[in-house]
Amino acid sequence: MLDNALAWLTALFKPSALIEGALLLTCLGLAWGLVRALRGAQPVPGSIWFGDRVVDGVLFPVAAFLLALLVRWLAVLPPLSLPGAVFKLVLPVLLSLVVIRLSVRVLQRVFPKSNAVRVAERSLSWLAWLAVVLWVTDLLPLILQELDGISWKIGSHQVSVRNLFEGLVTAVVVMMGALWAAAAVESRLIKGALVGGAGGAGGMQDLSLRKIAANLVRALLLFIGLMFALSAAGIDLTALGVLGGAVGVGIGFGLQKLAANYISGFVILAERSMRIGDMVKVDGFEGRITDITARYTVIRALNGRESIVPNEMMITQRVENSSLADPRVALSTVVQVAYGTDLAVLLPQLSRVVAGVPRVLAQPEPTVMLSNFAADGLELTVAFWIGDSENGQSNVRSAVNLALLQGLNEAGLEIPFPQRVWHGLPPVPGA
Question: 91, 128 in Cβ contact below 8 A?
Answer without folding.
Answer: no
